[in-house]
Predict the structure.
Amino acid sequence: MKRTIVPFGPQHPVLPEPIHLDLVLEDEKVVEAIPSFGFIHRGMEDLASKRDFNDYLYVVERICGICSYMHGMSYCEGAERIFGVEIPDRAKYLRTIWCELSRLHSHLLWLGLLADAFGFEALFMQSWRIREKILDMVEDSTGGRLISSVNLIGGVARDMDREMLAGFVAQFDKMESELRSLTKVFLKDSTVRARLFEVGALTKTDAILYGAVGPMMRASGIELDTRKLGYAAYGDIDFDIITSSGCDSLARCEVRIGEIFQSFRIIRQAVDKIPDGEIYIPVKGNPKGEATVRVEQPRGEALYYMKANGTRNLERFRVRTPTFSNIYSLLKILPGAQFADVPLLILTIDPCISCTER
Amino acid sequence: MAGIFKFTKFALKNLFTKPATRAYPAVPARQAPRTRGAVQVKIDDCIFCGLCNRRCPADAISVDRAAKSWTIKRMSCVQCGNCVLNCPKKCLTMEGAYSAPDIEKRNELFRKAEAPIPAVHTLAPAPADGKAIAPDRVLVIDMTSCVLCGLCARRCPTGALNVDRAAGTWTVDRTACLQCGNCVNGCPKKSLALVPEKDHPTVETYTKNAAPQVESVQAPAAPITAQPAGTEGITVDLSTCILCGLCVRRCPTSAIAVDRKAGTWAINRQSCVVCGNCLDVCHKHSLSKTTEGIDTSGVQVYTKTAEPKAEPAPAPTAPEPSASTETTAPDTPVGNGIAINMDTCVLCGLCAKKCPTAAIAVDRAAKTWSIKREDCVLCGNCIAACPKKSLSEDEIPLLETYTK
Amino acid sequence: MIYLYRTLSMLAYVLLAPLVGGFLAGLDRKLSARMQGRMGPPLLQPFYDLAKLFKKQVLAVSRYQFMMVASFLAMVIGTGALFFGGFDLLLVFFVLTTACMFFVLAATVTNSPYAELGAQRELIQMLSYEPMILLTAVGFYMANGSFRGVDVFYTDEPAIVRLPGVFLGLLFILTIKFRKSPFDLSTSHHAHQELVKGVTTEFSGVLMGMVELAHWYENVFLLGLVALFFVSSAWWSGLLAVGAVLLVWFLEVLIDNTSARVKWNHMLRSAWIVTAVCGGGNLLVLEIIRMLF
C-alpha cells in the first residue's frame, strides 16, 4: 500500500494555530501523525526574571489572544495568594463576568472555525457575527476587544456599573435566540452531521489515560470542571457541569454549545448577585512564597505556578496549558481518520498553540 | 432529527438586510469611550520622573529629564495602559486615539517648551530692580541648619546651585532654577523650601555664620585620644553592620570607606559633615550619631569583631582575619568543596538561586548559609554569581551549615 | 441559414463566454458575501484578479504543467464551441471528459502531495458525475430522437417536459461540476481546506489565470446545458431558458452557502443514487411509455 507523507502546518489556510503534523497517509486514510512543536515559542516565561512583577502581568496577558483574560486573572490570583490578600467581593464578581465573556467569545470563535474546517463558510461568518457583540461588550467595559488589561494584583482596574451590566444582559435575549437557531444548524443539519457524527471518537478510558481536559474530556462523559474549585466568585454561583456521552466530534460540539448557554446563565446570575463596594485594594511590597492556581480556561484546566523570593522579579512563572494535555488525545484520534477529517479533529481539541508554546 | 439546508433562513435573511461588516477605512473603526488607543502625553504637566519608562513592559517610552523630552516608540507600544495607571501627574491618556499603520518604525518625541537653560553656569549679577525672575515660587534656604553637604547642588538638574564649603556659602542662580523641588526633597537637613515669596535677587548667596567643623585635612601622626565631649559624629555598630556599602554611596562628601575583605568600616571625620544621610540609608540601623569616642582629626577605622580602634594613617590598614562562628566537628571529612567567607557574605541568596541542583540554602533571618554537599556538583555557578566574592572552591572541612 | 447561426453562435461563445463567465463569477461572490452578511468584493473583481494573475511571475513546478493546462483550456473552449454550434452531445461530453483529464494530469505532474490528493479526488468526482452526464445525452436522444444539440430547436415542447428526472439528476451533479459545497472536494474557491487549494495548489500566475478562464468557459457551457432543457421551436422558450438558468444559478449559490463539504464516499454514493433513481428512473419511464404507446 503506497504511503505518502503530507506536511500539515505550521502555516496552513485551514489551521487556526501553528501546529505542525507530518501525516502519513495511505490513500486518504491517516496512518500516523508525527507532530513538531516550538514554532511560536517566544520565551515569555523567561521574561519573569527581567520584568518587575507588576509589569510582568501585561506580558502574561499577552501569552495568547483568545485565552488572554484568564491568563492575566490567574497571574493576579497567584500573586494575591502569595501576598495573602483577599480582594473585594465586587472585584471577584467582575472577574467572573469577564471570565465568562472570555469563554463566550472563545467558544463562538471555535464554532466558527469548526464550520470553516468542514467547508461551511457562511456558518463561520454567522457565528463570528454573534461573537462581535461579545467583543463589543468587552471593549466597552475594558478598553480592548481581546486583551483587556483590566486585572491588577489586588482587584480590577475598571468597574462595570449597574447600567452597563444591565445593558449587556439586555442584549443577551436576542443573542440567545439567534444562537439557538444557529446551533440547530450545527447539531441537526445533515451535511454537518455527516462530518461530525462518529468522527474522532475518544472513549472515556482513553480520555482519562491520555489526560484530556476541558470540553474534550467532558464530551467523553467525565464530569469535572475546574470552576467548581470556587475561585473568583464561582463559589457563589450555581451551575452544572455540561457533559455528553457521545465521545465524538459532535459530542464536543454539543458540550461547547452547552457551555455557551451556560455562560449566559452564569453572567445573569453574577449580575444579579454582584455586591457594591471597592474594586481594588492596593498591595505593597515584594512577594515572597509560591502559589499554584488552577482555572477553567475555555479549552480546559490551566495550571499556573508562581514562585517569588522577595525581589521585584518573580523567580519562576510556569503555565501548563490545557492544549498541552489535549495534544496526546489528538495524536490518539488521528490515526485511522480520513484526511478530510484532519483539520476537524485538530479543531475539536480547540488548540491554542500560542499558549502552549509561549 | 437531521434536516437539510437548515441554514437557508439565515442566508436569505442576510441577503435582504444590511451587511454586518464595516467598510473600514472609508468608515472609521468602532471606538468605545474606554478604548485603549495610542498613548498621548500632556507634556506641560509632565515632570519627567521617568516612572512610565520604568513601568513599560515593552520599553517603548524613554524620558530625558535634562532635555525635557518624552519619546515613545509607537510600534513597540502594546497599549497595556501600565504607564497611564502609574503616572503620578496623570498626564498620560489613551482614550480616543489609535496608532495609524505605518511603513517604518517611528519614535514620537514630545518636548516641553520653556526658557532655554544657560549653557555655561556663571554667577550673573543681580538685576537692578532686584525682582525675581520666577515670581510665583522661590527657593530659599535656612543657613542655620544647612551643613553645606552639597547634595542639593548634585541633585539640581540645571546646575543652578553652588555650595562652597570652604567659604561657607550657598548660592542659587534663579534664572536657571526650575523650581522642580529636587533639592528640597534631597536636603537631609530640610533646610530648603520653595516659598511663594517675591523680591529676591536673581542670584543670591547665603553665607553660613558658624565656622565650618573641619579645619584641616591633615591627620596628626600620634594616636588620638578621646575628644572633648559634645563633638557629634557618626559611629557604627559592627555587630549588625553587613558592610554592604550603601552608606559609602550615599555619603555626599565620600567620607566613608568600607573594606569587605578586611571587614572594616572607616570614616574620615574631616570630610564627614554629620548630615545623617548614611543613617537614613542603612537598612541595618547600624549607624548612629553619638558624641562619644569621636575623633574629628582624621580617619577612624572600625573593624568587625574587634574594638573600634583609631588609626593614625588616613587610609584603612591591613585586615586581621575575623573568626567565623562555625565550629569544626572532629570527624568532619576534609575535601574539595565550596568554601564561604561568612564575614563578607551578605546572605543575598544569589548563590542559592543560581545553583542548578538547589544544593544551597540561605536563611537571612537565621543568618545561616547551608549547602548539601552530596547535591553540590562543584559547577562553580555560585562562585561566579556571588557579588561579594565570598565563595571559592577549596580544600576545606566539608561542613554543611555556616552561621554569621 | 442554420449553419450561419451555428457558426455565429460558436464565435459568440468563444469571444463572449469569458465576459459572461467572469461577470457571473463576480455576481456569485457578491451574492455569497451578502448571504454571509458581508459586503463582498466589487462585481468586476474576477476580471481584476485575472489581469493580475497574467501579470505575475510564473513559478512552474514541472515543465509539463504549461502544456497540460493549455490543453485543458483549449479542450474546454472546444467543448463549449461544439456545444453552442449544436453538434453531437455525446461528442461534446467526451471532449469535456478529455479536458478534465488534462486538468487532472496537470495536477499530477507536479509531484505535490496536495495536488496529487486533489487530483485523486477530482477523478472520484468524475466517477460520480460521468454516469449522469451520459444519461443526459441518452435522455435527449430518447426525448428528441437525436443526439444533436441543434435539433432541440425543431421540437414543439421543451425537453424538460419529458426529462424532469434527468433534469433533477443533472442539477444534482452540477453542484459537483461548479465546484460548490457540498461537493467542492478537489478544489474550491476558498483555500480553507485540508488540501490547501487541492488540484490547483501548484498553479500560479499565468497557469492559474488559464485555469480560471477555463472554469469560466466551462460554467457558461454548463449553464447552456441547463438552457437546453427549456428551448424549443417556440419564440418564448428563449426567455424561459434564461429565466431557468438564472434560477438554477441562484440555487447553486444558495446551496453553496447552506451546506458543509461532504467526504468523497458520501458524494459518490449520493451521486450514483440520484443518477440511478432520477436519471435512470426517468429513462425507464420514457422507455415504458414508448413501448406502450
